[in-house]
Hints:
Blueprint: H1 2-32, H2 36-46, E1 55-61, E2 73-77, E3 82-84, E4 90-98, E5 104-109, E6 114-116, E7 122-126, H3 128-131, E8 141-148, E9 150-152, E10 165-176, E11 180-184, E12 194-197, E13 202-204, E14 210-214, E15 220-228, E16 231-236, E17 246-257, E18 264-273, E19 293-296, E20 317-325, E21 329-337, E22 345-351, H4 358-361, E23 366-368, E24 387-392, E25 397-403, E26 409-411, E27 415-418, E28 424-430, H5 431-435, E29 444-455, E30 458-465, E31 470-473, E32 479-482, E33 488-491
Parallel strand pairs: 1-10, 11-18
Antiparallel strand pairs: 2-7, 3-9, 4-5, 4-8, 6-7, 8-10, 12-16, 13-17, 14-15, 14-17, 15-16, 17-18, 19-20, 20-21, 21-28, 22-24, 22-29, 23-32, 24-25, 25-26, 27-28, 29-30, 29-33, 31-32
The structure holds calcium ion (2 copies).
Amino acid sequence: xxxxxxxxxxxxxxxxxxxxxxxxxxxxxxxxxxxxxxxxxxxxxxxxxxxxxxxxxxxxxxxxxxxxxxxxxxxxxxxxxxxxxxxxxxxxxxxxxxxxxxxxxxxxxxxxxxxxxxxxxxxxxxxxxxxxxxxxxxxxxxxxxxxxxxxxxxxxxxxxxxxxxxxxxxxxxxxxxxxxxxxxxxxxxxxxxxxxxxxxxxxxxxxxxxxxxxxxxxxxxxxxxxxxxxxxxxxxxxxxxxxxxxxxxxxxxxxxxxxxxxxxxxxxxxxxxxxxxxxxxxxxxxxxxxxxxxxxxxxxxxxxxxxxxxxxxxxxxxxxxxxxxxxxxxxxxxxxxxxxxxxxxxxxxxxxxxxxxxxxxxxxxxxxxxxxxxxxxxxxxxxxxxxxxxxxxxxxxxxxxxxxxxxxxxxxxxxxxxxxxxxxxxxxxxxxxxxxxxxxxxxxxxxxxxxxxxxxxxxxxxxxxxxxxxxxxxxxxxxxxxxxxxxxxxxxx
Length: 493
Ligand SMILES: [Ca+2]
Ligand SMILES: [Ca+2]
């Protein structure tokens, strides 16, 4: 009997296997014969995993240690309600990043986790396996993701498995540019706007539409919050400007970064200052506000080859110069690929009284760079701008003078700062010092900046802004003729 039973069972199993195989083959054939529109309809009914972005932004700034940060998620959208049969999806992250030794490293992590959106049409994939590698030295990564195990949870295709989610070369980047921002209280009112720039697009949920921050004395400041391009815009709900150097700690909430699942929260420090510009190497909003005038310079226009072929080149390329002032300082900002080495320096000149200065007005005086003292005041002994400043970023050496009469110059103290990528530098010149040169509110001045390379091959002018100031360059750019009448015009206000 036992044997018979086994035989019967075997026959039954074989028959059933054959039946399933036939059914499976028929189903496969049916799928294979579906028209593309029918397949699209089937996919729509079943749900398809998708992520529409090339980048995922984490809740940090470049250089922030994210190794123990809380869970942050990437939103995989299915377009239909879905479910998982096991607790977690199966699949893996393959992460490529630059490790702390500067070497390219690859890591494969097979544990995936996360949770469903409230309506179960999306899965919020926990990105901790990636963010744990971002230790402040490693600030970005490239990730391949494969994830499967999801089933359709509604409609005619309920319980049908959904094709694996596959994403290649996802860029992982910080969402924030900094955690401290300087805001000027010049002309402060409830209409004032203070912008916090982000690196990616975002929206705000209701929770994020206002923020209350407090200063060190516990005083509260409330702002309404909105999104403009890739920035959060804060409008004060109070009419009295915070005192100079008030630091407000504010928690930004409800930040829905493009492609992220759960919204982010981040604590920011808002530094309110009475000046238009803070000299800290960070670009203040006022560098592009209506308070500021600027002029562009061509990029790629550094020192063309001289006729004798004896030319030095650098990769320092100025692309913009900006000027503004408040009651205490006149500010200069400069942009470009401001790469310098050795004793390279930037010279800034402000001329007010150039019409009475024959040497400059006629363009006859040479500003000779072929001398080690040219960065100082000495080379300008004949025909002078009213203000002269040099800055050598490599040694952070700054010197400045104002022309107090036709023969003497007085050293003045200026404030200078460059950003970490040498693409921006800013300077403050006290109005009280400029007044010693007769430059006061209402005066029109002409401004010029020159990048001067200075190393063992020689000393030469490499890039000038505005171009028209340098009416003549010698063949190897070792000397230059300046005409301040062609300088950038700015009226002190
Ligand atoms: Ca600044
Ligand atoms: Ca240029």
